[in-house]
Amino acid sequence: MMKFTVSNYNIKCATASWQLLQKRFNTTTVSTSLQITNNALTLPAAKQQSKHFTVQTKTRTLGKSQGRVVILGSGWAGFRLIRELDKKNYDVSVVSPRNHFVFTPLLASTSVGTLEFRCITEPVRTYSKETNFYQAFCDKIDVKNQVIHCTSNIDADPTKKEEFTLDYDKLVIAVGAYTKTFGIPGVKEYACFLKEVNDARKIRKRLIDCFEYASQPGISDKEKEDRLHFVVVGGGPTGVEFSAELYDFISDDLSRLYPDLMKKTRMTLYDVAPTILGAFDSHLSDYASKKFSRKGIQIKTQRIVDRVEKDHLVIKDEGKVPYGLLVWSTGLTQNPLVESFTSAAKDKSGQRILTDGQLRVIEKESNAPYPNIYALGDCATILDNDLPATAQVASQKAGFLIKNLNAIAKKGYEIPDGKEFKYKNNGIMAYIGSYEALVDMSAWHNWAKMSGHLSWLLWRSAYISKSVSIRNKMLIAYHWFLTFTLGRDISRF
């Protein structure tokens, strides 16, 4: 109970005011009462709020003619929808476990300090002033009642996770995917991934820790060699670009600061495939392999990881391999929401939601599309038109859906069944270190394949232009200049 000592006059005024308020509003849901004891005004303790609440805004009464669109996710597909969907005709709500968009092509650069983390993040609320944003996970989709069940993702108090429901008229599923571990023991516990800003921050801290540990007195040469062995598992663009950025960091900056440790520092790139960068033209992937070999980066293909321990991994036919840092980038696996969405059809692997050509989710039993549920990005694939899980595909699908939904809102008709999504391959790029890159646009022209320094300029120009905000375009250019002239920051936070 809370007590406040007041005068008799104030007590009379407070009592009269309270009675007037009760009469004015005729409240039946509030049971608060005033008690006066020994010239003290006593208020009853407030009841603890329930941990479950429902968000049911009546969108039709707010001038939103097309009802509520709920977007799940703030990745490449979700973030474009947030920015470009017609908010005059749709009441837009966003549910995402993070409150920002990550420009993933430059995530590897932030993990070694070439760029700072704020260079590649875009706050969702900056672009969603006319939308409702909820930082939460979507746990379940109730198709029958057109409701989603969510759990908050607020780090301030992880012991208190609020649960709530949110109704929708149209639902867009763009929750992305997780890094695939293949069920190998120890990967989740000991490996570092490269999907989020927190992953990059963890890698940067771990890198500096390895060098600081190896520079301590009393550390044996064997311990130094083990701690300064950096292992990357996965020979796709993410694994290769991180290896390239790490090589630049070591050769450009750490070699000046830890010169005595350079002979004990080594890098190894493992992949189960016969070559790295399998999505690129074979000449370009061979070029990258040769460049890595010349730099001293070992490439070991057709290797299988049996298990991962705290300070070593076990490779089939190779045995124990000690490491100081292990970065795991071996493809994608399903988001838990995809697994729980049992009424939706899945691809052959069971990892991705199946959609029709208009990106509508296909119902498993009837094989007919839901008229108001869409899926795109890494969590979905089109029936009989399987496309790679890339940012380029996700962004193009989002553009297609935005055009359709905005047309429905403005013109008042549904998109004809014959109009389906068509992917335009704009090429792929990868940084391979030492101011060199690969550019493969052979989907346009057979000769459009480049490597070397000119490709690096094209790579940087493309990513600056693709960065969303003017602020981040300026920050990226500024930090690239700082890194080139003054080097990377190795402060440990």
Automatic annotation (TrEMBL):
Which keywords fit this entry according to its UniProt record?
Answer: FAD, Flavoprotein, NAD, Oxidoreductase
Q: Which InterPro entries match?
A: FAD/NAD-bd_sf, FAD/NAD-binding_dom, NDH-2, NDH2-like_C
Ranges of residues in domain FAD/NAD(P)-binding = 68-398
Q: Entry's SUPFAM superfamilies? A: FAD/NAD(P)-binding domain
- Got a GO cellular component term for this one? mitochondrion
Q: Report the superkingdom from the record.
A: Eukaryota
A GO molecular function held by the record: NADH dehydrogenase activity
Q: Which residues form the External alternative NADH-ubiquinone oxidoreductase-like C-terminal domain?
A: 427-489
Q: Spell out the family assignment given in the record's similarity comment.
A: Belongs to the NADH dehydrogenase family.
Q: What is this protein called?
A: FAD/NAD(P)-binding domain-containing protein
Lineage of source species = Eukaryota, Fungi, Fungi incertae sedis, Mucoromycota, Mucoromycotina
